[in-house]
Each structure stands twice: as C-alpha cells, then as structure tokens.
Amino acid sequence: MRDRFRVPRSGWLTIRVVDRASGRVLQEVSGPNLIVDGGINAMPDAYQAVITHVAVGTSTSTPRPDDVLPLADQVLVPVESSSLPGPNQVRWNFVVPSDQANGLVIYEFGLVTAGGVLAARTTRSGFPKTAEIELHGEWTVTFAYEEE
Predict the structure, then answer these.
(1) Which residue from 46, 43, 59, 47 is spatially nearest to 11, judged by alpha carbons?
(2) What are the structural domain ranges in the chain?
(3) Is 28 exposed, middle or buried (0-12, 13-18, 19+ CB in 10 A)?
(4) Among 54, 56, 68, residue whose Cα is nearest residue 111
(5) pLDDT recorded at residue 33
(6) What angle do CA 14, 18, 19 make, to 5 degrees?
(7) Fewest CB within 10 angstroms: 44, 77, 123, 145, which?
(8) What is the pLDDT of residue 7?
(9) DSSP letters along 46-114, please?
(10) Which of 91, 93, 90, 98 is nearest to 127 (CA)?
(11) Sign (positive or negative) of CA dihedral 41, 35, 69, 116
(12) Is 108 in contact with 122 (CB distance < 8 Å)?
C-alpha cells in the first residue's frame, strides 16, 4: 500500500480572445473547472505528459463528474506547451487558431488525454468564433496528496 499519492483536485482556466490582425487582447475570462472522473483516474505522476489536447464545444450544460467526450460540436486543438508553475501544479497552454471552430459559439472547454479521455471540463460565457479572432488559453491543475 502506498502512503500518499497525488490526485488532481482543482483547476483554473484563463481564456483570452485575441484579435488575429493586431494581437490585441479583446477580452479575458478566468474561472474554475471540474476535474471529471476520467481526470481523477489518469496517472497522477505523469499528468503533464498525459494531457495532449483541449476540446472546445457548444454545450452550456453544467459540468458533471461523469462527463465524457465528445463535447457538443467538438473541435480538438493540441496543447502547445506545458509547464510546472508551482510545486503541485501543471499548466497547459493552447490556442484555438483563426482557421478553426469558426461559426461556433464556444461555451465549453475540456482537457483531453492522449487516450482520448476527458480529464476536466468547464463552461464559460459564449465566445462567437470567427476567422478574425483566436482563443488563447492557460489551464492549470492543482494536485493534492491523499491517503490511499
């Protein structure tokens, strides 16, 4: 029996709506997310490498622990980079580029593992996606130690 292990306990997502032509930030929204069952079951020690994509979609439904993929009208974008900003944190950076998800009003975001499992999900106020904007995101998950 292991004494303690790290499990994802909370997350925070920041989205910046960026004008493609000027690079100017038009809007910034931040808030918490729900770590869903698939995220809790992911390998905690390798969590940084396990998350490979972010899914965006159009559902406004409240996140639930049993949420799974696909999101409504799902578009997947790759994680561009990851970092360890704190002793118990992993941060993933992503961009929904100007040529993807156009015509959708994006309300939901999800962290996706290499195996295609939804690890975390959140909803925000809608972002009408056009070719004139990009969505730049930073998603941070904080781990806690628990007795096994």
Answers:
(1) 47
(2) 4-143
(3) exposed
(4) 54
(5) 87
(6) 170
(7) 145
(8) 59
(9) GHHHHEEEEEEE---PPP-TT--SPPTT-EEEEEEEEE--STTEEEEEEEE-TTSSTT-EEEEEEEEET
(10) 98
(11) negative
(12) yes
Measure CA 19 to chain center.
21
Q: What tokens were used for 53? A: 């994509």
H or E segment and range at residue 69? none
Listed in sequence order, the residues at least 6 apart from 127 whose beta carbon sits closer than 8 Å to its beta carbon are 15, 17, 27, 105, 106, 107, 133, 135
Give the separation between CA 62 and CA 87, rounded to whole angstroms.
Answer: 30
Three-class DSSP category at 49: helix
* Per-run averaged pLDDT (10 residues), the chain, 148 residues: 53 94 96 80 58 96 94 97 86 97 97 90 94 96 68
Lookup result for tokens 């639930």: 64
Tokens of 21: 């032509």
The alpha-helical segments, DSSP class H, found in 1-148 are: 37-40, 47-50
pTM, entire model: 0.86
